Amino acid sequence: MKILAGNWKMNTTFEEGYTLIEALKTELSPERLGEVVVVLAPPVVQLTQAIDLLIDYPEMAVAAQNGHASDSGAFTGEVSMAQLADAGADAVIIGHSERRQYSGETDRDVNLKTKSALAHELRPIVCVGEDLSVRKAGTHLAVVEAQLRAALDGIDGDLAENVVIAYEPVWAIGTGETATAAQAQEMHAHLRGVLRETYGELANHMPILYGGSCKPSNAAELFAQPDVNGGLIGGASLVAADFVALADLLQKA
Ligand code: PEP
Predict the structure, then answer these.
(1) What is the largest CA-CA distance in the chain?
(2) Contact 227, 192 (CB under 8 A)
(3) CB contact at 8 A, 216 and 242
(4) Residue 94: partners with Cβ closer than 8 Å, 6 or more residues away
(5) 42 lines ligand 1 (CB under 6 A)
(6) Positions in the chain whose pLDDT score sits under 70
C-alpha cells in the first residue's frame, strides 16, 4: 500500500478546507490514484466536515492530528482517540515532532496514544525523526530506532499490521531542507530492519512514509526508494495542485 497523507496543521478556515477537499475530489479519481491511499488531516474542528465530504470516497481517509490516550475524563481541551473514532475518523497522527517539541510529548506518550488508537480501530501514523544536532553527531539511526521501539513497545503483530510509520527528520520539516533520497532510504531501510526483528514478514507490508519539505520538485526521487512507501506532507498538502501532483508521482513510483 502507498499512502499520501496531508497534515494541514493549524491552517485553513472551514471554507478553505471545504474548497481544498472539493478540489481533491474532482482531481483524484480512484483510477488516477491506483494503489495510492490519500489521508487528509485537517484541524480537529473540521474533522466532521472532511468526513462528511468524503463519505463516498473510500480511497480518501480522514485523520486527526493528535488524540489523547485516555478514553474520557478531566482533560480540558483534549479529544480522545475514542471520540475521534466515534466522530468517524479513520486515522490519527501521533508523536509529530511539533507535538514533541511544543507540547512535551514523550516516547511513552506516543506509545500510550498508539495503543489507544489501535484499541479504537484508528490507524496510527506514528512519527519519528531526529533533530539537527543528532544528525550532525551521526547518531540518527540509533536515536530514531529507539523512538520506534518505544512507540511500538508491547504492540503485537495482530495490531501492528495497522500501524503506519512516518520518518520525518526534524531539520527538514517546514524548513525547505529535504533529506536526500539516499538519506531517506538509509533510515527507512534501518527502520524496516527493526520492524522485521519484531514482526518478521509483516514488516514488509508496514508503510513507512517520508516527511519533511516533500514537494513535487523533489518527491519523485524520494518516492522511488524501495523502502519509502509514501509521504507525510505539510506545506504542499495545502495547495491542491501540489498535492495532486504528489499523488501522481507516488502512483507512478
Ligand atoms: C510535517 O509537518 O509533517 C511536514 C512534513 O511538513 P512540511 O512538508 O511542511 O515540511
Answers:
(1) 48
(2) yes
(3) yes
(4) 66, 67, 110, 113, 114, 117, 124, 125, 126, 127, 151
(5) no
(6) none
Q: Which three cell numbers stand for residue 246?
A: 504528489
List, by residue number, the catalytic residues.
96, 168
Q: What pLDDT digit, counting tens, does each position of 106-163 carry?
A: 999 999 999 999 999 999 999 999 999 999 999 999 999 999 999 999 999 999 999 9
Q: Which amino acid is at 142?
A: A
The CATH fold assigned to 2-252 is: TIM Barrel (3.20.20)
Ligand 1 centroid–CA 215 distance in Å is 10
In the chain, where are the structural domains located?
A: 2-252
CA distance 216 to 149: 31
Distance 129 CA to ligand 1 centre (A): 12
Measuring CA to CA, which residue among 42, 57, 132 is closest to residue 87?
A: 42
Q: How many CB atoms lie within 10 A of CB 30?
A: 11
Helical residues (DSSP H) of the chain, grouped into ranges: 14-27, 30-33, 47-53, 81-87, 97-102, 107-119, 132-137, 140-151, 157-160, 181-199, 216-223, 240-252
pLDDT for residue 174: 77
pLDDT at res. 176: 77
Per-residue pLDDT, 243: 98
Q: Is the shortest distance between the CB of 168 and ligand 1 below 6 Å?
A: yes
Which of 4, 7, 10 for a ligand 1 pocket mutation test, highest count of atoms within 8 Å of Cβ?
7
Q: Is 91 helix (H, G, I), strand (E, B) or coil?
A: strand
- The answer to whether the beta carbons of residues 72 and 80 sit under 8 Å apart is yes
Ligand 1 mean position, distance from CA 211 (Å):
6
